[in-house]
Amino acid sequence: MAGPPTFATPPGFLGIRRQDPGAAFCVAGVPLDIGTTNRAGARDGPAAIRRASRMLVDGVHPSHWVDPLGLDIADLGEFELVLGDIPGSLALIEQQAAQCGHLVTLGGEHLITLPLLRALAKRLGGPVGLLHMDAHVDTWQTNFGQAYRHGSVFFHAIEEGILDPRRMIQIGIRSPVDRETWDWTLGQGITVVTAQEAHESTPAALAERVRGVLGQAPCFLSFDVDCLDPAFAPGTGTPEIGGLASWQAQGILRRLGGLAWAGMDVVEVAPAYDVAEITALAAATIAWEYLSLQALA
């Protein structure tokens, strides 16, 4: 072990202590958690992901031999929220995200992606493409009877014109969905790869499919940990059986270098349901893999 032992690593993501919104890459936590009808608990997700990231700072992975800590990177801590006020919290998240350049966001629930995309689209001057890895389509017009919940985030993003559905691909979809929402999703031009299709394919083939959809224009990665099977990520609010294995997700992401990545989030870690930190570690590793792609660029 070349450096200090991992238990001595400070609580910032990958041990980063620097807090500078002017850094080329900024990590931020957004502990938004308005709950679901069955489980809640994503509020503590950012802290859990940071703690688990201590497992990733002792070296580099031999599949790519790059260290994301070589980037100009800062950890800004937690974004502020307006407790109990969903529109107010979304506006505040967007305001804070707009002050950053390339943002890596630790959730919190999936609704945080909407203000992140709002800020990004304004900064870039137009809609962005999206790789969405999830068990759920998240294109319901309403979710649990409310307009703004984690299951409606991409419906609003498409309706607001901040997300180009023709440059959007979803991987890992497998939850029950009503036919109207399914037809609307496909009708927008979104490419949907179900979990079953992913299992019958390979990470290399799926990565090529992603490249074909995203092209070379700016794109965003939104990774919901329930994309992974509950065997690999039990600590989440809406688990669905039959999901991707951790190695499949890594295999896809490691083949996506060279795209015009403009930001990412990893969401829906609910530590209260986790076992031995495996969900938090999976989320931390996904963010680490994404930063490794940027280091390769």
Low-confidence stretches: 4-8
Tally the helices: what do you get?
9
CATH fold-level name: Arginase, Chain A
Structural class by helix and strand composition: alpha/beta
Largest β-sheet summary:
8 strands, parallel
Task: Specify the helix fraction band.
Answer: 25-40%
Which series of helices and strands comes N to C? Answer: EHEHEHEHEHEHHEHEH
Protein name: Agmatinase
Family: Belongs to the arginase family. Agmatinase subfamily.
Organism: Paracraurococcus ruber
Keywords: Hydrolase, Metal-binding
Descriptive account of the structure:
Keywords: Hydrolase, Metal-binding. Belongs to the arginase family. Agmatinase subfamily. With 297 residues, the chain is of the alpha/beta class. It has one domain: Ureohydrolase domain (Arginase, Chain A, 3-Layer(aba) Sandwich), CATH 3.40.800. Strands 2-1-3-8-7-4-5-6 form an eight-stranded parallel beta sheet, with helices on both faces. The longest helix is centred in the C-terminal third of the chain and has 19 residues. It starts with 24 loop residues before the first strand and ends with a helix.
What are its keywords?
8-stranded parallel β-sheet; alpha/beta; Arginase, Chain A; 297 residues
